[in-house]
Amino acid sequence: MSTILFDKIVYGPVHSRRLGVSLGINLSPTDGKRCTFDCIYCECGLNAEHHAHTPAPFREDVKKALTEKLAQMKTEEMYPDVITFSGNGEPTVHPDFAGIIDDTLEIRNKFCPEAKVAVLSNSTMLHKEDVVQALCNVDENLMKLDAARDELIGQIDQPVIHDFTAAKLIEQLGRFNGKLVIQTIFLQGEHNGVRIDNTRDEEVDRWIDALKKIRPEKVMIYTISRETPVKTLQKVPMETLEKIADKVRIAGFPVSVSG
Protein backbone atom coordinates (compact mmCIF):
# COMPACT_ATOMS: atom_id res chain seq x y z
CA MET A 1 0.00 0.00 0.00
CA SER A 2 1.20 3.51 -0.79
CA THR A 3 1.01 5.26 2.59
CA ILE A 4 1.62 8.99 2.93
CA LEU A 5 3.40 9.96 6.15
CA PHE A 6 5.15 13.30 6.62
CA ASP A 7 8.68 13.19 8.04
CA LYS A 8 8.89 16.95 8.63
CA ILE A 9 7.07 19.50 10.78
CA VAL A 10 6.56 21.82 7.81
CA TYR A 11 6.10 20.21 4.41
CA GLY A 12 5.29 21.26 0.88
CA PRO A 13 3.98 23.42 -0.50
CA VAL A 14 1.64 20.97 -2.20
CA HIS A 15 -1.37 21.51 -4.41
CA SER A 16 -4.62 20.78 -2.58
CA ARG A 17 -7.66 20.07 -4.70
CA ARG A 18 -9.77 21.91 -2.12
CA LEU A 19 -7.45 24.64 -0.78
CA GLY A 20 -4.99 25.60 -3.53
CA VAL A 21 -1.23 25.93 -2.93
CA SER A 22 -0.92 24.66 0.62
CA LEU A 23 2.04 24.73 3.01
CA GLY A 24 1.45 21.92 5.48
CA ILE A 25 2.14 21.80 9.21
CA ASN A 26 2.34 18.41 10.92
CA LEU A 27 1.80 18.52 14.70
CA SER A 28 2.00 14.74 14.99
CA PRO A 29 5.22 12.74 15.37
CA THR A 30 7.28 12.58 12.18
CA ASP A 31 7.87 8.82 12.43
CA GLY A 32 4.28 7.58 12.55
CA LYS A 33 0.62 8.30 13.03
CA ARG A 34 -1.22 9.59 16.10
CA CYS A 35 -4.95 10.15 15.73
CA THR A 36 -8.24 9.95 17.62
CA PHE A 37 -9.85 8.39 14.53
CA ASP A 38 -8.74 5.32 12.59
CA CYS A 39 -10.47 6.13 9.31
CA ILE A 40 -10.70 3.25 6.86
CA TYR A 41 -9.85 5.65 3.99
CA CYS A 42 -6.95 7.52 5.64
CA GLU A 43 -3.98 8.16 3.35
CA CYS A 44 -1.69 7.83 6.39
CA GLY A 45 -2.81 4.22 6.88
CA LEU A 46 -4.41 2.52 9.86
CA ASN A 47 -3.22 3.44 13.35
CA ALA A 48 -2.01 -0.05 14.29
CA GLU A 49 0.20 -0.25 11.20
CA HIS A 50 2.06 3.02 11.80
CA HIS A 51 2.73 3.49 15.52
CA ALA A 52 4.75 6.59 16.35
CA HIS A 53 7.78 6.10 18.60
CA THR A 54 8.77 9.75 19.05
CA PRO A 55 6.89 12.65 20.65
CA ALA A 56 5.03 15.38 18.83
CA PRO A 57 7.12 18.45 17.95
CA PHE A 58 7.48 21.15 20.60
CA ARG A 59 5.82 24.52 20.10
CA GLU A 60 9.22 26.20 19.72
CA ASP A 61 10.24 23.72 17.01
CA VAL A 62 7.07 24.40 15.04
CA LYS A 63 7.61 28.15 15.25
CA LYS A 64 11.23 27.83 14.11
CA ALA A 65 10.43 25.50 11.22
CA LEU A 66 7.60 27.67 9.91
CA THR A 67 9.62 30.88 10.21
CA GLU A 68 12.54 29.40 8.29
CA LYS A 69 10.31 27.97 5.55
CA LEU A 70 8.34 31.17 4.98
CA ALA A 71 11.54 33.23 5.01
CA GLN A 72 12.93 30.96 2.30
CA MET A 73 9.74 31.16 0.25
CA LYS A 74 9.74 34.94 0.52
CA THR A 75 13.26 35.16 -0.93
CA GLU A 76 12.04 33.00 -3.82
CA GLU A 77 8.93 35.19 -4.20
CA MET A 78 6.76 32.11 -3.79
CA TYR A 79 3.84 32.39 -1.41
CA PRO A 80 1.28 29.82 -0.26
CA ASP A 81 -2.45 30.35 -0.65
CA VAL A 82 -2.94 28.66 2.70
CA ILE A 83 -0.97 27.33 5.66
CA THR A 84 -2.71 24.09 6.55
CA PHE A 85 -2.58 22.09 9.77
CA SER A 86 -3.00 18.42 8.85
CA GLY A 87 -0.17 15.86 8.76
CA ASN A 88 0.11 12.43 10.38
CA GLY A 89 -2.95 12.64 12.59
CA GLU A 90 -5.27 15.00 14.42
CA PRO A 91 -3.59 18.40 14.94
CA THR A 92 -5.86 19.59 17.76
CA VAL A 93 -4.65 16.86 20.14
CA HIS A 94 -1.31 18.68 20.46
CA PRO A 95 -1.12 20.06 24.04
CA ASP A 96 0.08 23.45 22.76
CA PHE A 97 -2.30 23.66 19.80
CA ALA A 98 -3.78 27.03 20.81
CA GLY A 99 -0.35 28.59 21.34
CA ILE A 100 0.91 27.20 18.04
CA ILE A 101 -2.05 28.81 16.27
CA ASP A 102 -1.14 32.16 17.89
CA ASP A 103 2.45 31.78 16.70
CA THR A 104 1.36 30.82 13.20
CA LEU A 105 -0.93 33.82 12.80
CA GLU A 106 1.90 36.11 13.91
CA ILE A 107 4.40 34.53 11.50
CA ARG A 108 1.86 34.53 8.66
CA ASN A 109 1.21 38.24 9.18
CA LYS A 110 4.95 38.93 8.96
CA PHE A 111 5.81 36.93 5.84
CA CYS A 112 2.64 36.36 3.79
CA PRO A 113 -0.36 38.28 5.16
CA GLU A 114 -2.51 37.33 2.19
CA ALA A 115 -2.26 33.61 2.98
CA LYS A 116 -4.99 31.95 4.97
CA VAL A 117 -4.44 29.69 7.96
CA ALA A 118 -6.53 26.52 7.84
CA VAL A 119 -7.03 23.59 10.19
CA LEU A 120 -8.24 20.20 8.96
CA SER A 121 -9.72 18.49 12.01
CA ASN A 122 -11.73 15.38 12.79
CA SER A 123 -13.75 17.40 15.34
CA THR A 124 -12.90 15.19 18.33
CA MET A 125 -11.30 17.82 20.60
CA LEU A 126 -14.16 20.30 20.66
CA HIS A 127 -14.73 19.69 24.38
CA LYS A 128 -11.56 21.74 25.01
CA GLU A 129 -12.30 25.46 25.23
CA ASP A 130 -8.81 26.54 24.15
CA VAL A 131 -9.09 24.39 21.02
CA VAL A 132 -12.48 25.87 20.13
CA GLN A 133 -11.19 29.41 20.61
CA ALA A 134 -8.10 28.72 18.50
CA LEU A 135 -10.25 27.29 15.73
CA CYS A 136 -12.40 30.42 15.83
CA ASN A 137 -9.26 32.50 15.24
CA VAL A 138 -8.10 30.81 12.03
CA ASP A 139 -9.33 31.73 8.55
CA GLU A 140 -10.51 28.27 7.51
CA ASN A 141 -11.91 26.04 10.24
CA LEU A 142 -12.56 22.77 8.40
CA MET A 143 -14.33 20.14 10.48
CA LYS A 144 -15.02 16.54 9.54
CA LEU A 145 -18.55 15.09 9.56
CA ASP A 146 -18.61 11.89 7.52
CA ALA A 147 -22.00 10.72 8.79
CA ALA A 148 -24.65 11.64 11.33
CA ARG A 149 -25.31 8.20 12.81
CA ASP A 150 -23.18 6.49 15.45
CA GLU A 151 -22.99 3.13 13.73
CA LEU A 152 -21.96 4.58 10.38
CA ILE A 153 -19.37 6.91 11.93
CA GLY A 154 -18.02 3.87 13.74
CA GLN A 155 -17.69 1.98 10.46
CA ILE A 156 -16.08 4.81 8.48
CA ASP A 157 -14.06 6.81 11.03
CA GLN A 158 -13.55 4.19 13.75
CA PRO A 159 -13.20 6.65 16.68
CA VAL A 160 -10.79 5.56 19.39
CA ILE A 161 -12.50 7.83 21.96
CA HIS A 162 -14.81 5.74 24.12
CA ASP A 163 -17.58 8.33 24.65
CA PHE A 164 -17.72 9.69 21.10
CA THR A 165 -21.27 10.06 19.73
CA ALA A 166 -22.79 11.70 16.67
CA ALA A 167 -25.21 13.70 18.81
CA LYS A 168 -22.40 15.15 20.93
CA LEU A 169 -20.34 15.91 17.81
CA ILE A 170 -23.20 17.75 16.11
CA GLU A 171 -23.92 19.76 19.26
CA GLN A 172 -20.26 20.78 19.58
CA LEU A 173 -20.02 21.75 15.92
CA GLY A 174 -23.03 24.00 16.47
CA ARG A 175 -21.06 26.02 19.03
CA PHE A 176 -19.09 27.74 16.25
CA ASN A 177 -22.19 29.73 15.28
CA GLY A 178 -21.54 28.96 11.62
CA LYS A 179 -17.84 29.91 11.56
CA LEU A 180 -16.72 26.59 10.10
CA VAL A 181 -16.63 24.52 6.95
CA ILE A 182 -17.94 20.96 7.06
CA GLN A 183 -15.92 18.38 5.10
CA THR A 184 -17.45 15.03 4.25
CA ILE A 185 -16.05 12.13 2.28
CA PHE A 186 -18.57 9.92 0.51
CA LEU A 187 -17.62 6.34 -0.18
CA GLN A 188 -18.98 2.87 -0.70
CA GLY A 189 -17.62 -0.60 -0.10
CA GLU A 190 -17.22 -3.27 2.51
CA HIS A 191 -15.17 -3.66 5.68
CA ASN A 192 -15.10 -6.60 8.09
CA GLY A 193 -18.02 -8.17 6.26
CA VAL A 194 -20.23 -5.07 6.61
CA ARG A 195 -21.52 -3.07 3.65
CA ILE A 196 -20.66 0.64 4.04
CA ASP A 197 -22.40 3.37 2.04
CA ASN A 198 -22.99 6.91 3.29
CA THR A 199 -24.50 7.97 -0.08
CA ARG A 200 -27.83 6.26 0.60
CA ASP A 201 -30.79 8.66 0.72
CA GLU A 202 -31.58 8.03 4.38
CA GLU A 203 -27.96 8.66 5.41
CA VAL A 204 -27.68 11.81 3.29
CA ASP A 205 -30.98 13.14 4.67
CA ARG A 206 -29.81 12.52 8.24
CA TRP A 207 -26.50 14.25 7.44
CA ILE A 208 -28.31 17.28 5.95
CA ASP A 209 -30.48 17.50 9.08
CA ALA A 210 -27.21 17.72 11.03
CA LEU A 211 -25.99 20.50 8.70
CA LYS A 212 -29.13 22.48 9.50
CA LYS A 213 -28.27 22.30 13.20
CA ILE A 214 -24.60 23.17 12.65
CA ARG A 215 -25.22 25.99 10.10
CA PRO A 216 -21.78 25.92 8.42
CA GLU A 217 -20.72 28.75 6.13
CA LYS A 218 -19.75 26.18 3.50
CA VAL A 219 -19.80 22.43 2.85
CA MET A 220 -17.08 20.49 1.02
CA ILE A 221 -17.89 17.03 -0.26
CA TYR A 222 -15.43 14.70 -1.93
CA THR A 223 -14.61 11.05 -2.47
CA ILE A 224 -11.58 8.78 -2.49
CA SER A 225 -8.72 10.07 -4.62
CA ARG A 226 -5.78 7.98 -3.37
CA GLU A 227 -5.11 4.40 -2.38
CA THR A 228 -6.84 3.48 0.89
CA PRO A 229 -5.68 1.12 3.66
CA VAL A 230 -8.93 -0.84 3.36
CA LYS A 231 -8.84 -2.22 -0.17
CA THR A 232 -12.56 -2.92 -0.53
CA LEU A 233 -13.61 0.76 -0.69
CA GLN A 234 -14.94 2.34 -3.86
CA LYS A 235 -14.80 5.84 -5.28
CA VAL A 236 -18.22 7.50 -5.59
CA PRO A 237 -19.12 8.70 -9.12
CA MET A 238 -19.23 12.44 -9.71
CA GLU A 239 -22.90 12.11 -10.71
CA THR A 240 -23.73 10.82 -7.21
CA LEU A 241 -21.73 13.60 -5.57
CA GLU A 242 -23.54 16.22 -7.64
CA LYS A 243 -26.93 14.83 -6.59
CA ILE A 244 -25.88 15.09 -2.96
CA ALA A 245 -24.57 18.61 -3.60
CA ASP A 246 -27.93 19.61 -5.05
CA LYS A 247 -29.61 18.53 -1.80
CA VAL A 248 -27.12 20.62 0.17
CA ARG A 249 -27.87 23.67 -1.99
CA ILE A 250 -31.61 23.17 -1.54
CA ALA A 251 -30.98 23.11 2.22
CA GLY A 252 -29.38 26.55 1.83
CA PHE A 253 -25.64 25.90 2.07
CA PRO A 254 -22.88 26.70 -0.45
CA VAL A 255 -21.12 23.51 -1.46
CA SER A 256 -18.02 22.50 -3.40
CA VAL A 257 -17.52 19.08 -4.97
CA SER A 258 -14.25 17.22 -5.59
CA GLY A 259 -14.36 13.94 -7.48
Explain the overall architecture.
It is built from 7 helices and 11 strands. The strands form 2 sheets. It has an 8-stranded mixed sheet. A 3-stranded antiparallel sheet has the order 8-7-10, covered by helices on one side. The protein has helices spanning 59-75, 97-111, 129-137, 150-156, 166-173, 201-214, 238-250, and strands at residues 10-16, 20-26, 82-86, 116-121, 140-144, 181-185, 187-191, 194-197, 218-222, 233-235, 255-258. α2 packs parallel to α3 (129-137). It has 259 residues and is of the alpha/beta class. The two termini are 21 Å apart. The model has no long low-confidence stretch (mean pLDDT 94).
Keywords summarizing the entry:
eight-stranded mixed beta sheet; 259 residues; three-stranded antiparallel beta sheet; alpha/beta
Number of helices: 7
The helix fraction, in percent, is 25-40%
The tally of strands reads 11
Low-confidence sequence ranges: none
Distance between the amino and carboxyl termini: 21 Å
Strand content: 15-25%
| Averaged pLDDT | 94
Cα-atom Rg, whole angstroms? Answer: 18 Å
Structural class: alpha/beta
Order of helices and strands: EEHEHEHEHHEEEHEEHE
Largest sheet: 8 strands, mixed
Please outline what is shown here.
The chain is an alpha/beta fold.
Q: How are the elements arranged and paired?
A:
Elements: E1 10-16, E2 20-26, H1 59-75, E3 82-86, H2 97-111, E4 116-121, H3 129-137, E5 140-144, H4 150-156, H5 166-173, E6 181-185, E7 187-191, E8 194-197, H6 201-214, E9 218-222, E10 233-235, H7 238-250, E11 255-258
Parallel strand pairs: 2-3, 3-4, 4-5, 5-6, 6-9, 9-11
Antiparallel strand pairs: 1-2, 7-8, 7-10
